[in-house]
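Lesson 9: reading folded outputs for more than one chain in a single document. The general rule is that every protein is listed as its sequence immediately followed by its structure tokens, and records are never interleaved. Here is the first one.
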Amino acid sequence: MRLFLLEPEVAGGLGNHTIFDKKKSPVEVVFLNYEFSGWLGDELLETNPCFIVTEALASTLLKSGLSGLRFETVEITVNEEFKDFHPDTILPNFKRLIPLGNVLVDGNNFSKWSGHDFSLSQKSNLIATLKALEVLRKHLINYCDITVLEEILD
């Protein structure tokens, strides 16, 4: 079995309106404010430990029947750098993608996978099945680094 470690484009970071639950370990993002500083156009983006997708990609993922994901609202803001370098860019609407599965990753290998199409590694990396990757590739993910993971068999 193969899974894929996805490292999406980072087009910004956690904005000032992001809310954390500091009682959890590791600290959990309760509400995400994604603040753009640039954007190369991909529809899957990250700022550790969070992921966002365009509403168009979210719709495709929902219709696909893939497991291990849910969506939440996200507040999108832009910083001064974005305004300076992309004055005419109109950002699409985004949703926060929350992977529900989990998987233990060690180098280019994995174990203890929950069986979901979308999972989160112990280092908050996005992990996807081939089926999920094929759906993602119907949209723009040109700047997403993809690493093949092999299952460790006992």
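And here is the second record, again sequence then tokens.
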Amino acid sequence: MFNKNIKLVLAALIIGFAVYQFIEGYIGNGIFLILLSLIFIFLYFRNEIILLAFLRMRKQDMVGTEKWLSKIKNPEAALVTKQQGYYNYLQGIIFSQRNLTQAEKFFKKALKLGLNMDYDVAMAKLSLAGIAMQKRRKREATLLLQEAKKLDKNNMLTEQIKMMQQQMKKI
């Protein structure tokens, strides 16, 4: 909701007021204000709109996810680099049902900006492999599938990877 720089300024002001409360002897108020400032610091690193979009995605509500993502007007200015990666990752998932070329662009940009979790990187590469397979680029799809298999340490995507490998044999 707030710009990333405004969040840091608010956190600094709240911490400053907390220090003043400590000096005045109001220890409880100071501790509460420090905890309140931690919320703004947390939201600097984890954008609240992207968190809400992930919640909609978890419920398989693509329209709701797209609605939340549309609230971010200028992602380059409003988000930290990793948040931009997740913004593009979510956009890629949404567009993978409509426009494969656009989805491919979003997934590649998300991988370039970086994703925190290996599972998310594996999922993005698996999606890119599926797009490459549909566009009859077998070599690229094979490489992406191998990379996704290496990144899938918890074996959550093994079923999808095996299914894609079976489909690639038919091509």
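What the second record shows: Residues 4-24 form the longest helix (21 residues).
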